Amino acid sequence: MSRDDEIRSGGVPLPMAPPRGVPAHGGDDPDAPDGPDRRTVLKWMALAAAAPAVTASCAPDAPTGSAGAGTAGASGTGSSSSTVGNPLAAGTPWDPDLIAPRRHWELVLTDDERQGLAALCDVIIPADDVSPAASEVGAVDYIDEWVSAPYDGQRNDLVLVRGGLVWLDRESGSRFGDDRRFRDLTGEQQTAICDDICWIRRAAPEHRMAARFFAKVRDLTATAFYTTPEGMADIGYVGNTALARWEAPPDDVLRHLGLA
User: How far apart are CA 179 and CA 105, in angstroms?
Assistant: First the structure.
């Protein structure tokens, strides 16, 4: 499978809506307006401008509770007392503090499961001359946090992911030797297994559940990878970049659109 073929998916996970009764704007008053006023917007802009001053708390050797820079994983369940957060954020799952993020639940995947998951993530998005492999930028952390979340959809995904990892090891042993696990296979052998489960509609009946597992991990891996600086650079995405000035469209483009 080519890299482009492997990362295509039928959709990416959408953000969860807040539970019934929880205001969408994250405040305590259900009748409060959803849109921020001018003063609030100015405060957010000031916080954004000050963000570089607190990035040291996101370094890989930061205290427990801080996220590693350039990774897709979220922070721990506790926040470092030295971390400067956003005072306007409630710090809840529905109104998170993106400057000093924290995780609201414990991770449940075992070290062994994470190792098997890392091997699969790196088959889906392997390292190349442009960027590192998915596991190197926190894809496993992202998936672990996703399936550990205390919501019905994520609990179902946890069952699917755990069962799929067991299936991968059993299939590896069946095809290539009883003592072989998926992480122990060569890249060619790993690809041979994934080729049989990479598309649900094309999978053999006995592989349909494994194909569902692969589709879920592919979606989560791509979401994790392409929301990191490394993933954005891989596709040349230049959003979220401050510009010193904004150049208006050329006159010929405006004329073509009937705007000049």
Answer: 35
Is residue 199 scored above 50 in pLDDT?
yes
95 pairs with which residues across the strands? Answer: 92
Reading the block at residue 245, the tokens are 């000035």
161, 217 contact by CB (below 8 A):
yes
Alpha-carbon separation of residue 137 from 40, 49, 144, 160, 227 (angstroms):
34, 25, 14, 23, 10
- Are the beta carbons of 145 and 107 closer than 8 angstroms? yes
Helix (H, G, I), strand (E, B) or coil at 21: coil
Question: Is the confidence at residue 9, as pLDDT, over 70?
Answer: no
Token pair 């790993």 in the structure block, residue: 190
pLDDT digit string (tens) for 98-137? 888 888 899 999 999 999 999 999 999 999 999 999 999 9
Of 126, 198, 202, the residue nearest 164 (C-alpha)? 198
Q: Strand, helix or coil at 105?
A: coil
